[in-house]
Design goal:
Blueprint (H helix, E strand, L loop, with lengths): L1 H32 L5 H27 L1 H8 L6 H30 L3 H22 L16
Length: about 150
């Protein structure tokens, strides 16, 4: 089960990033180009948040079944940067990123004007993307290096 969760979570990372980048492109294009907020824009806003929530749930399932996180809870993590990263930093930063994304999605849905919808979506989604970029265990990360795809 752990390896299946790990694979799904690894692949889900790309779904979140792609949907978030699509949402950002549409948001900035609409905001700066003064376009109308269409049903497609709303669908991208909605599905970006939905995909991110699914990834967060996969992440929580992985968190509670991970031997690395179990090791973090059972010993002093100061001496194991990988355990500290996954046991604390990754889960907190990603949870915060999804909260930011969710707030931005909800606020954008409720704005009155098209410009305000796009602006809200652009700013909150950008903040979420920055948090996500900081918390992903990239192959070049000094905190916890992981490959782009886990098989």
């Amino acid at each position: 089960m752990y390896s299946t969760l790990l694979l799904l979570h690894s692949l889900g990372r790309w779904a979140v990033l792609l949907s978030l980048l699509l949402g950002l492109v549409r948001a900035y294009r609409g905001w700066l180009g003064r376009h109308s907020f269409t049903g497609s824009d709303n669908a991208v806003r909605h599905w970006t948040a939905t995909i991110a929530h699914g990834q967060l749930m996969l992440g929580y399932a992985l968190y509670f079944s991970s031997p690395l996180v179990r090791a973090f809870r059972l010993r002093d993590a100061e001496h194991d940067p990988g355990a500290l990263f996954f046991g604390l930093q990754h889960v907190l930063a990603m949870t915060l990123a999804i909260v930011v994304l969710t707030i931005g999605s909800a606020l954008a849905k409720r704005r009155e004007t098209d410009e305000a919808k796009f602006r809200t979506m652009a700013l909150w989604f950008t903040a979420a993307l920055l948090l996500i970029f900081l918390a992903i265990p990239w192959p070049f990360s000094p905190l916890a290096s992981r490959p782009y795809f886990r098989f």
